[in-house]
Amino acid sequence: MYTIISGTNRSGSHTEKAAREYQKILKNKNIEAKIFSLIGLDVLSRNEVIKKAEAEILIPTQKFIFIIPEYNGSYPGVLKALIDNSDTKNVWNYKKALLTGVATGRAGNLRGMDHLSDTLHFMKMNVFYNKLPISVIDKVMDNEGHFNEETMKAINHQLDEFIVY
Asked: From the CB of residue 145, how many other CB atoms can be counted at a distance below 10 Å?
């Protein structure tokens, strides 16, 4: 099972749009992927909502795709809180992860992907080598959430490799 984690709780974000686009691309490759949104999710403690999400989505997932925006040179605290308040052994250990960073700036959240990689490695996850930084996302994605041709080519290449990983 594939799950795309939209790594912010900000509604209407580029991250959310990118997650939906990844889901569509995977569907075109005959792969069903759920989107796990952090919007409106209480992740500040280990609660019944997190336990339910674990049982229904996170634990059954074998391959995670993290779409993470750049927040202050790293990844969002809401994503870190989710990780910190989850059942690490059952949710994350020995599973596979693909990282895509998004930013309106020029680096595509390279530093945030490195930070998240360190966290995921600590949890014994296998992080795929092809981490895609999507820079100036506000220019390579239109208002409906569709990427330009060059970015689509890079995403398709990344996903094709991850599928066989």
From this structure: 14
